[in-house]
Amino acid sequence: MFSKSKIIEPTQKKLSEGDKSTPQSSGASKLEHKGSSVSKPKSPPSTLSSDLTITGNLKTTGDIQVEGKVEGDIRAHLLTVGETALIKGEVIADDIVVNGRIVGRIRGLKVRLTASARVEGDIIHKTIAIESGAHFEGSVQRQEDPLNPNADDNKSISPIENLKGTKP
Questions:
Q1: Does residue 151 lie in a domain region?
Q2: Which of 81, 144, 46, 130 has the alpha carbon at shortest distance from 89?
Q3: Which range marks the domain in which residue 8 is found?
Q4: C-alpha 27: how far from its chain's center?
Q5: What is the mean pLDDT of the chain?
Q6: Is residue 166 part of a domain?
């Protein structure tokens, strides 16, 4: 088993000797550059507690965990609907995990209904998982870009248009 000190010691030794053409020294400079990158740390999810009721729309580029009641639309990166939660409105997020109840349309790249989920509404998704025990009443539709309400993946070609350009 290797330890961190065993890996660092040879690199430090070579750096102290002034040999900057070794892979170890270029790796050290990559680590220094990586540490000074401009990317900001990911913030924790916003949590709406079980005793909170919100009337209105919520929009964030971050994550939301709902335990209370929301009457309005929600747009987020990751939405986690807790077991005690009730959402009445449209939900749009990259990732959606439903443990509670949603009354309204769901649009997500990745949608997961757990065993305690209760959903009344349509689900438009790229990938979906529905656990045994989940209650779902509505339709399910797969789209490549479910987050875009204008995307129409159901463009069908009529039989006559399909025959155009084909030889008998």
A1: no
A2: 81
A3: 4-34
A4: 32
A5: 79
A6: no
